[in-house]
């Protein structure tokens, strides 16, 4: 599953706690991570920013997948 | 009874519009059209104004016109002229403000246009009937050029604890999310300084709206 056009160049993150919300009040105290992935095309011209906001569970799932990938890489590396 | 022409112009304007004079002329020519068909045409013209956007209703009204032209052996062009005249009368009647056009003045004007009494009765029932508010609302809200509306407005207040570059920054973080009626979802971050400016501008706007309300020149016409 290679993406020949874009490569990840930067991974910026921000960790925040939700204090108030205009929707229902059950989200008070929920932690959120705001990620900003910067990708650049292969020949170095197009820089695209991908802003995301993930909840803690989604972030732990992402970390789990990344750690699995790292373990596999360490086996063959 | 004093003639209303001395103080109020007829609702259709200074001269009879060509659409309406053609409609009356065709009505006289096709006197084989029964009253029920005419009533159906008038109610269809009301439906035309109310749900002009729904494509299904406009195709079905064309089918109804074709059916009429077959049943009563009148050419479809004459029927279209008559239907167009009815829609035009309704639109012109909805133009002056609601409290301005009284029902007997409306009937008098229709008599000047040489419509028959039954047709006048039908028009009167439509304009002053149950759907009166809805008709005026549609003409006011829908049939003018407008930008998309703000449908919903959500905000989210977070406190940033750590970032990739700073390890202990306790900083408030405000997000706004606008949903507009053309299905666009605009999400953006608001710095606290801009948020305070927004609060100031909202208060200023509310004060200006109150002042505009009080001005003499913007009051409604005398009823």
From TrEMBL, chain A:
This is COMM domain-containing protein. It comes from Rotaria sordida. InterPro entries: COMM (IPR017920). Residues 7-77 form the COMM domain. It comes from the Eukaryota. The lineage of its organism: Eukaryota, Metazoa, Spiralia, Gnathifera, Rotifera. It holds the Pfam family COMM_domain.
Automatic annotation (TrEMBL), chain B:
InterPro entries: COMM, COMMD5. It comes from the Eukaryota. Residues 149-213 form the COMM domain. One of its GO terms (cellular component) is nucleus. Belongs to the COMM domain-containing protein 5 family. This is COMM domain-containing protein 5. It comes from Rotaria sordida.
